[in-house]
Design goal:
alpha+beta, flat
């Protein structure tokens, strides 16, 4: 690794230490379906987002709720003595990226085959305090 890349990598690592986030890797649902759920909570207050996810009928809302609870727990672990209820936390960023794709074949008429792509995704949730806005 070159010296400039190393310096930039170190800067990014230091910035990550002050951010509070949680990751979900290789969840077996399509990114398109997961983005619908992510759009419901992006920019919202954390407690409001938890209620939205809890009462949503979408299948992708259950792992998203669990992931948001994990991000809140990460925030509480780094800020000992503070509760998420008392502080003004909000969902600052939600990233849904495509993950690995399982490729399968399904029989089709006249001896042909159709390719089936079973998609999965990676989700990252960032939370922050309202007073930390730049």
């Amino acid at each position: 690794m070159g010296s400039r890349k190393k310096i930039q990598a170190d800067i990014r690592k230091e910035e990550q230490k002050t951010k509070y986030f949680a990751l979900l890797r290789n969840f077996p649902t399509s990114p398109r379906k997961m983005r619908l759920v992510a759009d419901m909570i992006r920019g919202r207050d954390v407690l409001y987002a938890l209620n939205v996810l809890k009462f949503s009928t979408k299948v992708a809302s259950l792992p998203m709720e669990k992931l948001l609870k994990s991000a809140i727990a990460n925030w509480e672990a780094k800020n000992e003595g503070q509760q998420a209820k008392d502080s003004q936390l909000f969902v600052s960023q939600v990233n849904v990226d495509s993950a690995r794709m399982l490729k399968r074949f399904q029989p089709a008429p006249q001896g042909r085959a159709h390719r089936i792509r079973k998609r999965s995704n990676h989700v990252t949730i960032f939370i922050d305090k309202k007073e930390n806005l730049d």
